[in-house]
Amino acid sequence: MKTRKGSEIAFSYIALLPAFIIVLLFALYPAFYAVYLSVFKSNFLIFNRHFVGLSNYITVLSDSQFWIALWKTFIYTFWCVILQFFFGFTLAIALNKNIFGRTFYRAAIVLPWTLSPVIVAIIATIIYEPSSGGLLNFILLKLHLIREPVSWLGSGSAMYAIIGANTWFGMAFTMVLELAGMQSIPTSLYEAARVDGASSLKVITKITLPLLKPTMLVNFVWITISTFNEFDLVYALTGGGPLQETNLLGIHMYNTAFKYGKFEIGSTIAVLMFVINALLTVVYSKLLKGTNELA
Length: 295
Description:
Number of strands: 2
Domain ABC transmembrane type-1: 70-284
Transmembrane segments: 12-36, 74-95, 107-128, 158-180, 263-284
Strand content: under 5%
Oligomer: single chain
Mean pLDDT: 84
Membrane topology: Multi-pass membrane protein
Keywords: Cell membrane, Membrane, Transmembrane, Transmembrane helix, Transport
Family: Belongs to the binding-protein-dependent transport system permease family.
Largest sheet: 2 strands, antiparallel
Low-confidence stretches: none
Order of helices and strands: HEEHHHHHHHHHHHHH
């Protein structure tokens, strides 16, 4: 019996080995190598390398472009997280009810989330077409909300455009996660609240939200980190332009390392991004402290 159990455990480890190797090669190794590069200076990635300690960090933190990119990233992340959660949570509440076509609506909302960010960027480019034939301009012109077509990806409006694209792309995750959480809440609690005459708003604030705090923690951490590290969607839409208006930290890191060949500086920015992600996770954990007791 023990031999059979030992064989099953051994098989489990063997089955997990390919996944572990993939994570090691494509996640852990690049992360540790970035930390390694951040404390070295070199003209090339391999040759003529020498240890410089925290010199690269001082260089990055002394660069005004880093702080400008960081500030833009915080603005972008803040609004994307707020809007993703608001629309995702609202849709979850609506689709948690027994309405006609509920399955269709769920599938339609989740569809963008299943696509590649680059594909989403292509669709968004069509929607944001600056001519009167662009979908967004066409709708707003017909509703008389604008007088002439707007260049949504141009100067002055590009940040709003990428926030809108990210919200449309990411709100499905919040909807799926919060909807799953809502369906795990005992219906007896809602029935008791209705008997007591509680309004819909009271039910949400006193029952739904408190019991969803553990789910909300996972939700907020995920969408914050994924949005803060955003690269492909924004890069495919604007490339960081126009005039570096959407030059987020991820794009700034990419350009520094691969466009200008400063791999050690790019690695330093990546390490600082990891530190910021860790700090944001700690902040969320503190803000939603005591979720286990409320669950």
